[in-house]
Amino acid sequence: MVQYIARRLAFAAFLVIAVASVSLVLARLAPGDFATGALGLDARPETIEQMRARYGLNKSIGAQYRDWVVAAAHLDFGRSLLYDRPVRDLIPERAANTAILAVAALAVATLVGLPLGIVSGTRRGGFVPGLIRSTSLVLLSTPPLLMSLFFVFLAARTGWLPIAGMRSAVTPAGGATLDLLTHLIVPAAAIALPLAAMLERLQAQAMTDVIGEPFVRAALARGVPRSRVVWRDALKPALRPVASMYGLIVGSLLSGSFAVEVITAWPGLGRLMLEALRARDVYLVAGCAGAGAMFLAFGTLVSDLALGLVEPRARE
Amino acid sequence: MSSRAAGLTLVTLAALVAAGAPVVAPHAVDTRFPRLLNAPPTRPYVRDEAGAWHAPFIYPWRLVSQLEQRYEEDRSTRIPLVWLTGGHLVSSSDDGRAPLVLLGADSFGRDVFSRLVYGARASLGLALAAALGALLIGATLGGVGGYAGGAIDDLLMRTSDFVMVLPATYVVLALRAVLPPVLPAQIVFALLATIFAIVGAPFIARGVRAIVRSERRLDYAVAAQSLGASAWRVLTRHLLPAARGFILVEITVLIPAFIIAEATLSFVGLGFPDPIASWGTMLHDASSVRAFADFPWLLSPAAAIFLVVLALNLVFQPSGVGVVYNEPDEPDRRLRTNSYTV
């Protein structure tokens, strides 16, 4: 087990370094650089050269990459040109915002999707299962990009909820936490609803499969009440295939949160990456891409370990 | 009508509209009507104010408030619609006074409906091309890996595993950003299709490899081989057809994912360049909150994406999610589903 985790961590480290390096080089290869972007096209060539020299942009790609790797080995990931702050300080803050969004969305999706899936998966006909199924189908076709546009539209029309950002400029009555929560509703719901629909469908499918198994039929035949069979006997084996999906879900959380962050102006990692790319802020691009890889690797590892707890066969 | 038939109808309709864009759209993709900035959709009527019946007609828009861009129907004149003239299915008989804008006009005064129809070409075409590319790459890698086994198989599968665990969004963004922001549309199309195909291919490669690996031990494959069929023939004529069902389902998962990926990239300004109509660039034009709160018709590309994705889900995944039991040779069957790849 320890060996397995160590191997996974080593691979994750390799992945993070590779992704960060490649994005650094790619961002550097892109036409234009931060100096021309920030100073404008009609700045004096000397001024541009001065700025390049200050940020180390006048070195060759090889030299710049080497310097960055040496510094990164000492956990110094360069200075963001755009924000004029060390990348090391900037990223954790934004990554935490993305994590708040992703964890909130995942929790809501799980709490809504799984119980509904159990209900719709155990009954064949009926109005309620049919309603759940068709709602899921609609929500599945509304990825976070569309969902957040729709919610922002609703929020802007009705004025019920804040439409952008993470905090109000002036903390309103009720405190900072409440303010954060009201800002969280729109972006989190935009990610959570399609995800809940997906979990509902998966859980329903798994439930239907398990209900057909002989041991469930036997329990029913012995006269055990149906609800008890469903919630006690069938639930546990049906949760396993769904639990194995969580590793993949981490990836869709990350890409879903990118679209949502851009639309709702949530100050997360995805938005930071976009800003950095637009400004040709090479060190910040590398930092964001590395952090994204780390987010994904960490999320997948946690979900795989959690899967090992409920599914003994997945442990090897 | 079953939900499957409904979905099939919608998909066919979308494909027909995209193919016949110049005929279906009343206007060219970049025609501007400077007097109709952010004008609301024109409504076709068959009864006039007095209650008399006419062939379908429209009323011209009259600007009421320049500041708020509010318009009102000018009920004094009827402009009849004309059918099948000038190479368009339907258009206004007097484009100068009252152009037909079925889904309103955008902030440049361009007809949203026409752009939506032309945008279907870019968005759906890109998704289809990328899915076919992913299929080609994935089936080749998976087929070769599964058939050859050994070191080649290891190498190919490690590579595709590696691509699968990359933070796809960030990689696509970085790759796209290397190139100049403004490129000709054809190059953007080819570039995005290639990037999407590479990101999507591993999902197909893994499944195809697993199927080829288990199939090649079966009698029919062994028989073909012992009759002297070449490796190429066994693979293409016998083993890959066994993966047909799997590939079909995977493609229907990839196409919606690619439509959404294009929309996301164009939305943030890294997809198609601005004058090109695609569903993503149209959303980009609508992207200020004020614009789409006041002029909701600018969100019609979002509705179009929703309908196409829903239709694809209805056609190929009647239960809602394509639940595929992946990796037939693995003891634990894993569920795979619509996770938005990019």
Report a brief summary of the structure.
The complex is a heterodimer of chains A (316) and B (342). Chain A has 316 residues and is mainly α.
Description of the structure:
The complex is a heterodimer of chains A (316) and B (342). Chain A has 316 residues and is mostly helical. Chain A has helices at 2-29, 34-39, 45-55, 61-73, 87-122, 127-140, 144-158, 175-211, 214-221, 226-243, 246-264, 269-279, 282-310, and strands spanning 79-80, 85-86. A two-stranded antiparallel ribbon of chain A has the order 1-2. The mean pLDDT of chain A is 84. With 342 residues, chain B is of the alpha+beta class. Chain B has helices spanning 3-19, 21-24, 112-148, 150-164, 168-178, 185-215, 219-226, 231-239, 244-267, 279-285, 289-294, 300-316, and strands spanning 45-47, 53-58, 61-65, 70-73, 79-85, 88-92, 324-326, 334-336. Classes of the chains: A mainly alpha (316), B alpha+beta (342).
Set down the secondary structure blueprint.
The complex is a heterodimer of chains A (316) and B (342).
Chain A: H1 2-29, H2 34-39, H3 45-55, H4 61-73, E1 79-80, E2 85-86, H5 87-122, H6 127-140, H7 144-158, H8 175-211, H9 214-221, H10 226-243, H11 246-264, H12 269-279, H13 282-310
Antiparallel strand pairs in A: 1-2
Helix pairs in contact in A: 1-13, 5-6, 5-8, 5-11, 5-13, 6-8, 7-8, 7-11, 8-10, 8-11, 11-12, 11-13, 12-13
Chain B: H1 3-19, H2 21-24, E1 45-47, E2 53-58, E3 61-65, E4 70-73, E5 79-85, E6 88-92, H3 112-148, H4 150-164, H5 168-178, H6 185-215, H7 219-226, H8 231-239, H9 244-267, H10 279-285, H11 289-294, H12 300-316, E7 324-326, E8 334-336
Antiparallel strand pairs in B: 1-2, 2-5, 3-4, 5-6, 7-8
